[in-house]
Amino acid sequence: MTHVVPSQSSSLDDWLCYLESIHPSNIDMGLTRVRQVGEKLGYTALPNVILIAGTNGKGTTARCLEALLLSQGYSVGTYASPHLIRYNERVRINGSELPDQDHVAAFHALEQGRGEISLTYFEFGTLAALEVFKQKQPDYILLEVGLGGRLDATNIVEPIASVITTIDLDHKEYLGDTRELVGREKAGIFRANAPAIVGDLAIPSSIWQYAEELGTQVTAAQKDYSFALTADLLTYQNGDLTLSLPVPNIPAQNVATAITTLYTLGLLPNENTICDVLANLTVEGRFQCLSEQPLVYADVAHNPESARYLASKLATFQAQGKTIIALAGMLQDKDQKAVFNAVKSNIDQWHLANLTCFRGDKADNLLQQLHSEVDKPNATIHDSVASGLQSVLANMPEDQLLIVFGSFYTVADAIAFWQNKE
């Protein structure tokens, strides 16, 4: 099939539609094609790259690293995925999204340079981000790994540090169905000549084994550094370094991972600067407050580990006497039962919504999975996230909290609903 190639004057939407059409599959694991293009166009030699892998916490760790580097006057390029509302969210320079034309120019340059080599949507987007960074030349580049690590398109670069945030089961069909297998895939971003920082609190032995084989120096949570969280203080310890920090708006584990990464690289700012950064740091879609009256939060939790963190956040509101209402929408290939199991003791009333996106599941199917974990759940199904929000918000007392969760798509729909509502 012949596809009409957009031009430099085409819209970003035209280019994104084109990228979705040019490869026969959405996921095509392997680095051969991507590396060929990357080497040809000079992307593999980009300097000062930090690679960030992990089942959960990549986005928040990257945002923390970005803010801490920016606080010292460095310029920073950040690549993350997926986006919530706009594709532009995927690439940031100094914390800001870029205009459409910058993405179009990068897509055009890559299209001209890739020749006959076929690329998936994600691969094309990743290489286009590297094209942006090649043009903008930031002091440091933060690359968030998309899937796994070893065979992910981001892994064609040579990082100055490799980071693994957490290890849990997700994307089992690609990464394996044990933490050992998943850990080995994510450790594929390690390099012999660059430090590795692992924030997981129970590191699989496969990570240690691969690091030893490669000769990578690993700095590990609970072994080389530690952190403790109280109601009003985050304490961090790493050798002679002790920090007393405000409680962050993102998971403390990810903050500790980011701090350790910069400390290892000799790039950590002073304690006062870190405190200022953490006091103002928020990440979209991560227990994000959409409204205070009524009280509405949104969280992208979509696997067991992220659901357990969500449960811990909800528990603090339960302790204050809040009734918790959940509106959930999930993808078909997620471990829905495990997610429901992780939060079931924190939810008083359930609302389940259809997701109409690719791989989106029906509310009827979610209800079946919920019944297997919760005995006689108080549950209502809805045609969409928007209709679910309309229904819940119409009769929501002040002593209730609504949490919208289950997928990036679910949260995106909730944010869009709120923006339209305003």
UniProtKB/TrEMBL annotation:
Q: What does this protein do?
A: Functions in two distinct reactions of the de novo folate biosynthetic pathway. Catalyzes the addition of a glutamate residue to dihydropteroate (7,8-dihydropteroate or H2Pte) to form dihydrofolate (7,8-dihydrofolate monoglutamate or H2Pte-Glu). Also catalyzes successive additions of L-glutamate to tetrahydrofolate or 10-formyltetrahydrofolate or 5,10-methylenetetrahydrofolate, leading to folylpolyglutamate derivatives.
Boundaries of each Mur ligase C-terminal domain copy? 285-408
| Keywords linked to the UniProt accession | ATP-binding, Folate biosynthesis, Ligase, Magnesium, Metal-binding, Nucleotide-binding
Q: What is this protein called?
A: Dihydrofolate synthase/folylpolyglutamate synthase
Q: Known PROSITE patterns for this protein?
A: FOLYLPOLYGLU_SYNT_2
* Entry GO MF terms: dihydrofolate synthase activity; tetrahydrofolylpolyglutamate synthase activity
Q: Which organism is it from?
A: Pseudoalteromonas spongiae
EC number(s) for this protein? 6.3.2.12, 6.3.2.17
**So what does this thing catalyse?**
(6R)-5,10-methylenetetrahydrofolyl-(gamma-L-Glu)(n) + L-glutamate + ATP = (6R)-5,10-methylenetetrahydrofolyl-(gamma-L-Glu)(n+1) + ADP + phosphate + H(+); (6S)-5,6,7,8-tetrahydrofolyl-(gamma-L-Glu)(n) + L-glutamate + ATP = (6S)-5,6,7,8-tetrahydrofolyl-(gamma-L-Glu)(n+1) + ADP + phosphate + H(+); 10-formyltetrahydrofolyl-(gamma-L-Glu)(n) + L-glutamate + ATP = 10-formyltetrahydrofolyl-(gamma-L-Glu)(n+1) + ADP + phosphate + H(+); 7,8-dihydropteroate + L-glutamate + ATP = 7,8-dihydrofolate + ADP + phosphate + H(+)
Q: What pathway annotation does it carry? A: Cofactor biosynthesis; tetrahydrofolate biosynthesis; 7,8-dihydrofolate from 2-amino-4-hydroxy-6-hydroxymethyl-7,8-dihydropteridine diphosphate and 4-aminobenzoate: step 2/2; Cofactor biosynthesis; tetrahydrofolylpolyglutamate biosynthesis
Q: Tell me its family.
A: Belongs to the folylpolyglutamate synthase family.
Which segments constitute the Mur ligase central domain? 52-193
Under InterPro entries, the record lists: Folylpolyglutamate_synth, Folylpolyglutamate_synth_CS, Mur-like_cat_sf, Mur_ligase_C, Mur_ligase_C_dom_sf, Mur_ligase_cen
Main EC class the enzyme belongs to: ligase
